[in-house]
Amino acid sequence: MGVVYRLTRRVARTNASVLLLGESGTGKELIANAIHRLSPRATGPFVKVNCGALSEGLLESELFGHVRGSFTGAIANRTGRFEAAHTGTIFLDEINSTTPHLQVKLLRVLQEREFERVGDTTTIQVDTRVIAASNRDLRDEVHRERFREDLYWRLNVVPIELPPLRARREDIAELAAHFLNVYNEKNDRYVVHIEPRAIDVLQSYHWPGNVRELQNCVERAVVMAEGDELTADLLPASVVGGESVRPREIGHVSLDALIGEVVHRGLAQSGADAANLHAEVVDRVEKELIVQVLAACNGVQTKAASMLGINRNTLHKKLKDYDLER
After folding, report:
1. 15-19, 53-57, 113-117, 215-219: segment of lowest average pLDDT
2. Lesser CB count within 10 Å: N end or C end of the chain?
């Protein structure tokens, strides 16, 4: 995280595009906000767009605006988010969810700083800094032809990778104390201590939802506490029992066995075939993970998406990609 903070401060002073990488819940939006606030554009707008939460048509209109009559329901002209972020910063979260058509338009904005509203021919010039985020490795997405390579290089001027919470367990106690103060104030409570056993439990848990999950966990404990101490019994049973999905305990599939199988086949391969091995491992593990989490949630997609640390639209897209919609 020290590297992340130093990069954040250094790149903030420039106009370079930044690509934030990391699992859902690791704090990519907070870093994007910090880059904006520490930059010469701090007095300008900071505009956030979740690309995974909207369909292609809605997202295009949201980003670039539209003119009256350009499609059914367009009863008036509308300013897009890029236009609204003029002289400031636009944060494109889950940019890996964008379609090839939208990626072409995004590439043009990055290169030429211009675009047209949906249904219009008038070119609009903008001075907007772009910060993008992805919870998937965009290099893999490029390799699988799901993401344009030229757009990737335009976005990837300064990459900043945020580590998952399980890789920075020494921060958990301090983060928990911070959230304790936040939710005491919000809920008018006085929970000022965290018992040592609760800290041990928090540091032993795998945190698939990362810092966002920890934040929710502390908020729940503050609301449920009857005294002035956050105790282990106030934590969710899944946290106390360590029931999170761990990297080497995904359903009934052994990750070691899966990797062994793929690598064994890869020993006889070379070139392009061998280069596909990593993508295959990632796909197979992610598919199995989604199947097992959905089963644990009795097929309730909203709950499964929450456990996986992604939004429901992203989960729906993954179900379609892996032919799991049934």
Report:
1. 53-57
2. C
